Amino acid sequence: MRGTVAIAGVGLAGCGEAPGWTETEIAAAAAKNALDDAGLGVHEVDGLVVASTNSFMSGLALAEHLGVRPKFTESTMVGGSSFVGHLIPAALALNAGLCDTILVAYGSNQRTGVGRGEAGKYKMALDPQPFEHPYKPFNPPTSYALAAARHMHQYGTTRAQLAEIAVAARRWAQLNPEAFAREPLTADEVLESRMISDPLTVRDCCLVTDGGGAYVLTRAERAKDFPQPPAYLLGVGAAHWHRQISSMPDLTVTAATESGQRAYEMAGLGARDVDVVELYDAFTINTLLFLEDLGFCGKGEGGAFVSDGRIAPGGALPVNTNGGGLSCVHPGMYGIFLVIEAVRQLRGEAGARQVKDAAVALAHGNGGVLSSQITALFGTKDTL
Amino acid sequence: MATPPGPEKRYLDALAAGRFEIQKCSACGKHVFYPRVLCPHCGAGDLGWVAASGRGTVYSTTVVRRKPADGGDYNVCLVDLAEGVRMMSRVVSVPPESVKIGMRVTARVAADLVEFLPA
């Protein structure tokens, strides 16, 4: 699979607040931007990949809305990691010749549209979890809080170290004019903000925004003919071990240990080869766990690793360069934004937040409650 | 002829009768929680039921913060039972923030739920 497919276009829409827009409309607007970026018309799309937190048939809905008649439709839903995971079936379909131009798209009006509380009630009724819901975990924060508490207990990780992660994300967001939360943020402000589920405060938690994103995937030989420099898929791997936090074997070790290894093996690369890192930071503890599990530091060393601005602008390792889910955008599922930021960094079009000479980018998706882990590595043509 | 209920209903029915029972695999001998059709350890389909010891240790814990008007803060934790299985639950009768990782706890059935008291 290495190097056989590439992203030819990316687009965003409605990020932040998009009052009066439906999730399908936001996805369609992002799709238009991604297709324009690739120099393609909507009717050249013959493969469509979509997932939604609310719609059971989002692939059918978006195809109908766009007026396309796909030969290949895929809607695997593994939470926020979905749009990184979609690279796998999409690449297989392209390589099998089932279709030529795949549009992957997502839209959500989670901030200004259907209320999360209301939607949550319906979801609980349709998909009960009788071994967790009766104890009223405030999920997802409570599940991630349990993981953070265990990491702190086992490795001496501190709340101040977690706060450094939120501050680093905010400093990147301040370099990104498209980020939603750009006002200054200090570690003390993170520590003193409202506690949600100990040890996580509201500033340890991602934003709740509207927004959509899309990317266009084609076979590599064709991607060369489009206006933008292609971002080649060098490796991708997936793993999941549980759905509910009570079934996670060790709350300090995620399945990213496996997904990352699979992606690195396919790419023939390791953590030391990665120039820019995009990690699914639904909560500060995510960034720390994934830095460990993807091999950027040892297990239990994440707290020390993120200290002294190491992952902030100007630090040794650029992490979550758009500001992440913590400070840029988080409309229910963030996975597609990881891919889009990785592509923009590889193209060198990221403006003030551009990582110099970025040739290899890692995008790591997380879904559920540290459940689904999917790692992708992208590279410029020089990395093929 | 009535079909016996699935494992989830079997568990909840026992709980409603005041009994905390978990599964044990007759093939590999390991305990299983939550209740399942197949043993997740060895894949065997023959899971029996045993009374849980009720002895446990807090594996991780959090305080969910809630406005006093809505009932105030409460504990949510993960408890490792002596049988080697883990479950979500809560420790009651002590302030939620006083629940610590490593604390020994004992189960009780209250209002069709398993909750824990400090041992």
Description:
The complex is a heterodimer of chains A (384) and B (119). By secondary structure, chain A is of the alpha/beta class. Chain A has a single domain (5-113, 207-376), classed as Thiolase/Chalcone synthase (Peroxisomal Thiolase, Chain A, domain 1, 3-Layer(aba) Sandwich). Chain A has helices spanning 23-38, 58-66, 82-85, 87-95, 116-126, 141-155, 159-173, 187-192, 220-223, 256-267, 284-293, 302-305, 324-327, 335-347; strands spanning 5-16, 47-50, 72-74, 101-108, 195-197, 200-201, 210-219, 231-239, 276-279, 360-367, 372-379. In chain A, a hairpin with a 2-residue loop joins strand 5 (195-197) and strand 6. The model of chain A has no long low-confidence stretch (mean pLDDT 97). Chain B has 1 helix and 8 strands; from the N terminus they run H-E-E-E-E-E-E-E-E. Chain B has a 5-stranded antiparallel beta sheet, with no helix packed on it. Chain B starts with 6 loop residues before the first helix and ends with a strand. At the A-B interface, helix 6 and strand 5 of A face strand 4, strand 5 and strand 6 of B.
